Amino acid sequence: MSNNLEIIDRDSFRTTGENVRKFNIHAARLIKSIIQSTFGPQGNEKIYIDIIGESTYTKDGATFLRKIDVQHPAAKVLIDATNTVDNEVGDGTLTTAILAATLLEKSEEMMDTGISPATIASGFDNGLKYALELLDSISYKVDNKNKAIIEKIAQSCLGTKIIFSSLDQDELKNILGIIVKAVDTVYSNSKNSLDIDDIKIEEKIGNFIESKLIDGIVIDKSTDNKVMPRMIENARILLLDEELESKITRTESQITINSPNQMMLFCNAEKDMVRNKVQQIVNCGANVVFSRKGIDKTAQEILSKAGIMSVKRVKENDLNWLEKATGGRITKDLEDEEMKNNLGNARSVYEKRIADDKMIFVEGCSKPRAVTILIRANSKMVMDEVHRALQSTLVLVKRFIQSPSIVVGGGSCEALIAYHIREIASKTPGTEQIVLRKFAESLEEIPLTLARNCGLNSMDSEIKLRSQLSRKVHPGKIRWVGVNSSDRCIGELDWEIIELKAAKEQILNSAVEVGRLLINIDNIIVKKLLMNTHTHEDGTEHSHANGDIKHDHYFDKLGKQQRPHHHYY
Asked: Which domains, from first to last, does the chain contain?
């Protein structure tokens, strides 16, 4: 009998100490190497082809990291952090991944010199505290209704996305105007609150310049009947959540009919019920009906004769958007005496062919609390990327409205904070001085990555950044030195390229949290794959390679028979 007490069973694999940290850092380094070339306006695009052969063409960090399938827990932690940043602020996913991975690389350098992980984690915490304090002191608070600033924020976000780097000025001005107007319309008509879900995004193949904003809702359906009007002016819209067809019972039912006359009476009774419902609609004064449920041929015929346009089987979300856009209320009972008061209004409702499909446009709503952005692009891949870019931009603008503080972009914010943290480090005694310097170097990786992707030399860029920041400035003045991606140079930047303070806070917090978490892990215990776990006749349960095929063990040789069929868990 062994004198050693087995705590971890033989089906588990254990890694401890320095090896764990090296594996974690290596995983983060690999993630960084994959995505850092896409960073910034001059970054490259990626194509991901999934298991069924569908291609995703993207330059968005969060999209690409969500697509790739990683197994290592450290890589998953890093990707989860970028997803959090994307969900909270809509931008900064690549910055988070690059900063977190660089912090881990600097940690490895310090641990190789004998600095303990606890000292590094403490230094990172202090570096984060100083960075947030400096960020607060250099940021500017502005009016959250300033359209010019909202447009610049949108342009800074879109400038790093796939299609917008190649747009001409008319196309760029068009899409920025659409975003600003959509946000302003919803924000103004929703009691100064912005819910980005109130901005519907529809896609159709076409030219990008044809993308436009509809001050109402676009529905990807056609009218129910060819004889119905295709255009209704001064629309009075009924939003219906009741079927205009014979009801089908939810449980099995049986009706006994003994003669053709009874059959005719039954069919006529059903039609009379539908006719009565449709007559209620005609009487209430509606000339457009959107129904979440079915509308049968009898109802369509009566509505057509009354000059009423109807659209059946409208999605529930579309009906909710119509409710917000038209000012109407969803009607669930046609016997309701207040049904007239539930009608919504629009200047026009019409059917129009877009690309190969017909769509219903509800336009000219007086004070819409929901609008539609119609995206046109020349391929499905590009449309999907534009859709993602618009979603990220809207999240970012929403965060700006909640917290309207800004800083200059182009890596100048990180460079400025790094410069000041290096000054703080020079006055800090002990080992923490080294950690703070490494923290500052990690922040500088953001502008340096931008510079590399612009074709600049990393060492020259680092020297220029530090030398220009070290020049004396007038008291109270801030020198923003960063990467001008358009001119491909290092220099002072103005307020044309702006980013959110809230986004920078989220990036710093997430990146430091990932770095601190991964360097503090010193044990990984991995259970072998479940597909190889099986039970033998004597009750022995274990896992090993090729456990899914018939095999022998030492206990089989002792006369014990293996079960004919394995039981897998």
From this structure: 12-141+407-519 (1.10.560.10), 143-208+368-403 (3.30.260.10), 216-345 (3.50.7.10), 533-569 (no CATH)
